[in-house]
Amino acid sequence: METDLKIERKCLECSAPLRGRKDQKFCSDYCRNAYNNRQNEDINNYMRRINNILRKNRRILDLLNPDGKKTVDAITLAEEGFNFHYYTNTFETQKGATYYFCYDRGYMKTDDGRYFLVHKQDYVK
């Protein structure tokens, strides 16, 4: 006995009947985007929060150091709301000093506890 069961496929987002390709999962681009956005919402929120902190750090470094090189106290950075736990990359000099960067604005802690602020140079990768 042969059965010809035709399973009705439905959009994963809105449950509308699907017509067309057998591997089709969504009835429209709108439904595909809405479904994927909902699936990735938690990771997107996490990344958005981290990027907001990084952008704030960069704005603070840019505000305090408009000319490219400046030394400031830690309290000055802290009062502006700088978060030392977040940076995009580091650069270690040949002498072993480490610069921390928020995109293209950076800082290095000096021996006296102050911070030397810099703009990223082309040779710093």
Salient structural properties:
125 residues; alpha+beta; five-stranded antiparallel beta sheet; 34% helix
Explain the overall architecture.
- By secondary structure, the chain is α+β, with helices and mostly antiparallel strands.
- It has a domain at 52-119.
- The protein has three helices and five strands.
- The chain has helices spanning 29-39, 41-64, 74-80, and strands spanning 69-72, 89-92, 98-102, 105-109, 115-119.
- A five-stranded antiparallel beta sheet has the order 1-5-4-3-2.
- A hairpin with a 5-residue loop joins strand 4 (105-109) and strand 5 (115-119).
- It is rod-shaped.
- The N and C termini lie far apart (69 Å).
What percentage of amino acids are in beta strands?
A: 15-25%
Stretches with pLDDT under 50, minimum 5 residues: none
- What is the count of DSSP helices, taking H or I runs of 4+ residues? 3
Q: What is the CA-based Rg, rounded?
A: 25 Å
Helix-residue proportion: 25-40%
Average residue pLDDT:
91
What's the SSE pattern? HHEHEEEE
Globally, the shape reads: rod-shaped
Largest sheet features: 5 strands, antiparallel
A few lines on this structure:
It is built from 3 helices and 5 strands, in the order H-H-E-H-E-E-E-E.
SSE layout:
Layout (H helix, E strand, L loop, with lengths): L28 H11 L1 H24 L4 E4 L1 H7 L8 E4 L5 E5 L2 E5 L5 E5 L6
Antiparallel strand pairs: 1-5, 2-3, 3-4, 4-5
